[in-house]
Design a protein that fits this description.
Elements lengths: L2 H10 L2 H8 L3 H56 L3 H76 L2 H57 L3
């Protein structure tokens, strides 16, 4: 009957931290605890409901037996008034039976009521602890999510300044400098090529002028 309450006490007690330490995912483990506690409460509610039903049934039978005993006494009195002593005796005999039954049922009813009241108190305690655990679960869940986020961000930030990242940036910087050097070399070669062409073109122009002067001289047009 009380195994469910013992389990709740275990979860609420000091073993919670060690259980969480062993859990791969504390949030999922907390959710599992809450599901088990909720199931325990439902089972205990069913048990308490059965005890209350039994208590009310015994109370009803006890009260009926008590009323019947009172009724038999009244009937015995009426029988005596009418002069029927034998009927009065029989009524009193049944009254005694009903009184004994009422007394027995009363004891059973009081025990059932005591048990039901005790379990109702335990059930209220369970619900109170469940609500406390729910608040604690929500708090721990938020803390776990926050810790996960911080860890993820710290890992990302640490990777930004890692040697691997720095080496990658250094390689890219060297690559860009190499490309710039190649571009400058290409410009120098292009400039040198253009100077050579200009000199050759000037040389060609010089040859034409010489030929023109020689032609004029032959023609006497100097």
């Amino acid at each position: 009957m009380f195994k469910f309450f013992k389990r709740v006490k275990t979860v609420v007690g000091s073993e919670l931290n060690s259980m969480l330490d062993k859990a791969e995912d504390p949030v999922k483990m907390l959710e599992q605890f809450m599901r088990e506690m909720s199931e325990d409460i439902r089972e205990s509610e069913t048990s308490v409901a059965k005890l209350i039903t039994n208590e009310k049934m015994l109370q009803k039978k006890y009260e009926e037996a008590e009323k019947m005993a009172d009724k038999r006494e009244e009937q015995a009195m009426k029988a005596l008034e009418s002069g029927n002593e034998d009927l009065a005796r029989r009524a009193l005999e049944d009254k005694r039976k009903q009184s004994d039954l009422a007394e027995s049922l009363k004891e059973s009813y009081l025990r059932a009521k005591q048990d039901a009241d005790a379990l109702r108190t335990k059930l209220d305690e369970m619900k109170e602890e469940y609500n406390e655990m729910k608040l604690k679960k929500d708090s721990l869940k938020a803390r776990a999510e926050s810790a996960k986020t911080r860890t993820k961000m710290n890992r990302s930030m640490s990777s930004i300044g890692s040697d691997h990242s720095r080496q990658g940036f250094d390689r890219m910087e060297e690559k860009v400098m190499q490309m710039e050097s190649e571009a400058e070399t290409s410009d120098d070669l292009s400039q040198a090529s253009r100077s050579l062409d200009d000199d050759l073109e000037a040389l060609d122009k010089g040859n034409v002028d010489d030929e023109l002067a020689a032609l004029k001289k032959r023609m006497g047009k100097e």
